[in-house]
UniProtKB/TrEMBL annotation:
GO molecular function, one term: ATP binding
ABC transporter domain residues: 2-247
UniProt keyword annotation of Nucleotide-binding present: yes
Name this polypeptide is given: Fe-S cluster assembly ATP-binding protein
Keyword annotations: ATP-binding, Nucleotide-binding
InterPro entries: ABC_transporter-like_ATP-bd, FeS-cluster_ATPase_SufC, P-loop_NTPase
Organism: Qipengyuania nanhaisediminis
Family named by the database record: Belongs to the ABC transporter superfamily. Ycf16 family.
Length: 250
């Protein structure tokens, strides 16, 4: 579903992704772990098409299409969703407005009819309930004054509403309290654990992987994937640390 081949990318002339190759099949949840500054968020930005990130080599194929050739909104309409490590605030725009616009723009991009106000609200209520987020939160401006955990939860409501084929989730577990971690993890399972979908789950800790059980775990270090294994790799990292696990032959 997503195939990244020998990808190199730079920011402000500095190479950050350095020959990164990774494949995620449909139906697969693939966790990415790696030291701070390794390039995990950069990878998610490059996949999303964020301006300022220059791809200097390699290729990315998403559902049979050349992803790097598509505009960010085309990537979204094709079914790609990005959950940010630091969700942005949008003053003056309510979550409900924003999500309805986003959903209908994506539906239009796919040649589908827009949802009416009533249909949209029904969908929003259903997804807010799934993530145990009060509907009043969705009436407030996007992320403005939200606590760290509320932002992450609202982002998963966003994912539920947009119903993407593939999600890149960047540290969705950061800032969540113990109960919220379970709610968000269960939400990811409910929304994305489907044979036709795929997830790239960037995380530093095993705790999210206890709930959202990954099929594969890869270590990203210095801009490339240096090791891939099963769920046991994450457990080993937690117990032994990066240096010990990365020192052995791939
Ligand atoms: N504008 C920039 N100019 C130069 N270097 C940058 C710029 N933006 C990011 N970087 C560097 O790119 C590297 C990769 O950053 P990135 O955010 O992708 O790391 P990460 O793996 O997500 O780390 P973390 O686990 O801390 O979230 C870092 O060393 C960072 O300082
Ligand atoms: Mg990061």
């Amino acid at each position: 579903m997503l195939k990244i081949d020998n990808l190199t990318a730079e920011i402000d002339g500095k190479t950050i992704l350095n020959g990164l190759s990774l494949e995620v099949a449909a139906g697969e949840i693939h966790a990415i772990m790696g030291p701070n500054g390794a390039g995990k968020s950069t990878l998610s930005y490059v996949l999303g098409g964020r301006p300022g990130y220059e791809v200097t080599g390699g290729s990315v194929t998403f559902r049979g299409q050349d992803l790097l050739d598509m505009e960010p909104h085309e990537r979204a309409a094709a079914g790609l969703f990005l959950g940010f490590q630091y969700p942005v605030e949008i003053p003056g725009v309510s979550n409900v407005q924003f999500l309805r616009e986003a959903l209908n723009a994506q539906r239009k991009g796919r040649g589908e009819e827009p949802l009416s106000g009533g249909e949209f609200l029904k969908l929003a209520k259903e997804k807010a309930a799934l993530l145990k987020l009060d509907m009043d939160m969705l009436k407030r401006n996007v992320n403005v004054g939200f606590s760290g955990g509320e932002k992450k939860r609202a982002e998963m409501v966003q994912m539920g509403i947009l119903d993407p084929a593939f999600a890149v989730l960047d540290e969705t577990d950061s800032g969540l309290d113990i109960d919220a971690l379970r709610v968000v993890g269960d939400g990811i399972n409910a929304i994305m654990r489907d044979s036709g979908k795929g997830v790239l789950l960037i995380t530093h800790y095993q705790r999210l992987l206890d709930v959202v059980k990954p099929d594969k775990v890869s270590i990203l270090s210095k801009g490339r994937i240096v090791k891939t294994g099963g769920p046991e790799l994450a457990l080993r990292l937690e117990n032994e640390g990066y240096d010990a696990v990365m020192a052995e032959p791939a």
